[in-house]
Amino acid sequence: MSRKSLAAALAIPLVLLLSACASGAASPSAGTGDASAPVRIGVVGAGDPYWETYKEAAAAAGITVDIVNFDAYDQPNPALSAGELDLNQFQHIIYLATYNVKAGDDLVPVGATAIYPLGLYSTKYAKVADIPAGETIAVPNDESNQARALLVLQSAGLITLKDGGSIFSAVADIEPGSKVKVEAVAADFTASSLPDFAGAVVNNDFVKKSGLTKDQLLAQDDPTNASAFPYVNIFAAKAKDADNPTYAKLVQIYQQTKAVQDGVKEASGDTAVLVTTPVSDLVASLKKTEDDIRTQQ
Questions:
Q1: Do residue 252 and residue 287 come from a single domain?
Q2: CATH number of the domain within which 259 lies
Q3: pLDDT 10s digit of each residue in the chain, 297 long?
Q4: Which residue stretches of the chain are H helix?
Q5: Is residue 14 part of a domain?
Q6: Is the pTM of this model over 0.90?
């Protein structure tokens, strides 16, 4: 398939105004299904209060959970693959697909959590129309979130992307003559870099902890649109643990414990769209996205 036709097939419709490692030894619970052994779950943002609520709910079901915090998105997947974690929960399907293809890995989704909108924030301008031509916007530098951020900017009328844009778009695909310039920075620095830019597309994990508010949100994509499916966030495990019953129970606890779900919503600023997508659908989406990524190479 040509890049143009693939981009057209995968383009994401968007709307405005609305994404410490332990030792190298494997965790004792890895792949055993032993509910009495600690299950180590890697996350970005362990300080969110709902994780303590989740641990308590898991303990009530007889499962001990250790939450392992990471500061950057590029850490939890290698840690999971190396056996330093049993599960991780921080990424959407496209991010996992990109990691698997690049690393030659086979991590798999074992449960869905939520879809989070990706938003453009500014501490200098009150609305998109106020941003002067020639200003610079920061976007995350990891490939999957960068493409999504560029689609947000295109929907806001700030840039035009080659062939209409897709989940593979990069800064180099911005057409000459676009209203603003774009600079890619590490996802965890997008919010803190706002004083240096006209605006920044900030991943949900870093919005609340950076003190950003809805008043500073200028535009975002629509998490309820069917085309947002590849951005479903997931619990991920090693392929050999895909059918681990303890891990399946932990997903169920996350999805069905009201206090946990309420905490997720609160931590997201009430923007998270909670989902219980069947694992088979997540796996199918992962495989399709991986195949599409390989086609691009």
A1: yes
A2: 3.40.190.10
A3: 433 333 433 333 333 323 333 323 333 344 444 446 899 999 998 999 999 999 999 999 999 999 999 999 999 999 999 999 999 999 999 999 999 999 999 999 999 999 999 999 999 999 999 999 999 999 999 988 999 999 999 999 999 999 999 989 999 999 999 999 999 999 999 999 999 999 999 998 888 888 999 899 999 999 888 888 999 999 999 999 999 999 999 999 999 999 999 999 999 888 899 999 999 999 999 999 999 999 987
A4: 3-10, 50-60, 76-81, 93-103, 143-155, 245-256, 258-267, 279-296
A5: no
A6: no
